[in-house]
Amino acid sequence: MKRIWLMVLKNIFTVPYWYLKLCYYALFSKKISNEKKRILFKEIVTRANQGGNVTVRAYGLQNIPKDQPFMYFPNHQGLYDVLALLCNSPYFFSVVVKKELEHLPFLNKIFQIMGAYAIDRDDVRQSMKVIQKVSQEVAAGKNFLIFPEGTRSKNKNQVGSFKGGTFKAATKAKCPIVPVAIIDSYQVFDTNSTKPIVIQVHYLEPLYYEDYKMMKTTEIAELVEKKIKKVVDN
After folding, report:
1. What is the pLDDT of residues 46-75, one digit of tens each?
2. Which CATH architecture has domain 2-233?
3. β-pair type (197-203, 177-183)
4. What's this model's pTM, rounded to 2 decimal places?
């Protein structure tokens, strides 16, 4: 948590400005283009990274589909994961988060601007409704991110088991699935160190509908998990 304070202190004079701008964007989100939102997020996260001694290196950006909506499926290490993608994804995306996060200061404004959905992991019916809504939005042209582990791993760079149900939104929307391998993201907020760190974000080759249409969601989950583990473990 020390790094959060470092990020704030080193940007103490600009934090009020960025927060007010986030509030404005959240209030008028429907009137603001996705590209302007993406640029705002990138600017804020870049400033925070500079203040917190965090460097994010992105690989495989060429693998992200350019001409159709898609879904990111990354491994999950902590609160910083979404921010790691916000500072380098060339396309705007929304996210599905657990309900416990939707009211966190600062992050709640980001989620509101993104049009994020909060999911209750203990309520199967509510979870299925969220998956249905996400599939409809992706089919309509919006990119999304879902963490297939369901919750963050507490074992640093060890990847947990991927849940087949999280891929139902993609199969319903018949969209490309982009596996994303995140390395060392846990170090940002889950350690007390403020030493310089480098986070890796690897965008892997996507699975298109033709690649997975004959597969069960559990089989897709196993395949995506295997692809991400191969990168993280190396």
Report:
1. 999 999 999 999 999 999 999 999 999 999
2. 3-Layer(aba) Sandwich (3.40)
3. antiparallel
4. 0.94
